[in-house]
Amino acid sequence: LAGATPFTEPMQHYITRNAWGDVWQRPGLDLKTRSLVTVAMLTALGRQHELKGHVRGALNNGATTAEIQEVLLHASIYCGVPCAVEAFRSAAEVVDGPPAGSEKK
Q1: Cα–Cα distance, 101 to 12 (Å, whole number)
Q2: How far apart are CA 33 and CA 68, in angstroms?
Q3: 71 and 49 in contact (C-beta within 8 Å)?
Q4: Contact at 8 Å (CB) between 68 and 53?
Q5: Mean per-residue pLDDT for 69-83?
Q6: Rounded to the nearest 5 degrees, what angle is found at the Cα of 35, between the Cα atoms of 72 and 48?
Q7: Going by C-beta distance under 8 Å and a sequence separation of 6 or more, which residues neighbour residue 94?
Q8: What's this model's pTM, rounded to 2 decimal places?
Q9: Residues 72/84, Cβ–Cβ less than 8 Å
């Protein structure tokens, strides 16, 4: 909720209650697995902004960079190479930091 504005706050509360408070807390999948599944789904949907946050979350939930690479490579077969290339670019910004020369002045 830290980045919520008065306009976006209702949506953030909805996400917090339903995603983080319910679905992510269910038994059956550990947080690392849920994170890797989410990375795959966001890759398929082409949601690069959300993907970056979930790559960071996957790392925080115990996924390795090698596991994230494998998920993205696997997604390339089922989602298409262009989706996977974009996902690799986004994930690399989290893993490696922003590309050289992209710093804001």
Answers
A1: 33
A2: 11
A3: no
A4: no
A5: 97
A6: 55
A7: 52, 55, 56, 59
A8: 0.86
A9: yes
Block residue for tokens 């893993």: 95
Give the domain 29-95 fold: AhpD-like (1.20.1290)
Single-letter code of the amino acid located at 29: L
Return the amino acid letter for 23.
V
Q: What is the 3-state secondary structure (H, E, C) of the chain?
A: CCCCCCCCHHHHHHHHHHHHCCHHHCCCCCHHHHHHHHHHHHHHHCCHHHHHHHHHHHHHCCCCHHHHHHHHHHHHHHHCHHHHHHHHHHHHHHHCCCCCCCCCC
Q: How many residues does the chain have?
A: 105
Condensed to tens digits (0 to 9), the pLDDT of residues 21-46 reads 899 999 999 999 999 999 999 999 99
